[in-house]
């Protein structure tokens, strides 16, 4: 498919959405980020699973044959530097953290001994305020 044909596919889809009252628009460039994040995640997961089942020599051979997932995505996105592609790793880490937090039951992270306001309760005297004496030392 030509570049102009690809752009036309999106233009037609956007027109159909508008005709149906759906206020959404997309371009081919908008797909780069989701493509990179999803592809990296799947490649990393596959690599980690495969490498975990191998000995050191097998891992070395596997890495030589299949390469680095980040470099694989870099080539497909047309980036000159892996540093540019590495920006997508931040999104992966953020998604992983959000997913993990969603799986934590409500109230599971409440530390023992903290008040509703998030401050620890005062269980010991504060120097200079709660003790009496000439120098207020504990």
From TrEMBL:
Residue ranges, annotated region (Disordered): 111-138
This protein's superkingdom? Answer: Bacteria
Q: Which InterPro entries match?
A: DNA_brk_join_enz, Integrase-like_cat_sf
**Keywords annotated in UniProt:** DNA recombination
Residue ranges annotated as compositionally biased, kind Basic and acidic residues, are 127-138
By what name is this protein known?
Integrase
* Organism in which the protein naturally occurs: Streptomyces lanatus
């Amino acid at each position: 498919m030509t570049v102009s044909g690809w752009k036309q596919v999106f233009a037609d889809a956007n027109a159909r959405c508008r005709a149906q009252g759906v206020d959404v628009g997309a371009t081919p460039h908008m797909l780069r980020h989701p493509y990179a994040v999803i592809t990296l995640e799947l490649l990393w997961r596959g690599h980690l699973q495969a490498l975990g089942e191998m000995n050191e020599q097998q891992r070395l051979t596997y890495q030589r044959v299949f390469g680095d997932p980040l470099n694989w995505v870099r080539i497909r996105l047309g980036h000159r530097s892996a540093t540019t592609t590495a920006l997508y790793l931040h999104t992966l880490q953020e998604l992983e953290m959000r997913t993990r937090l969603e799986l934590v039951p409500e109230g599971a992270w409440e530390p023992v001994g903290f008040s509703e306001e998030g401050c620890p309760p005062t269980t010991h005297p504060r120097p200079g305020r709660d003790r009496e004496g000439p120098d207020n030392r504990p």
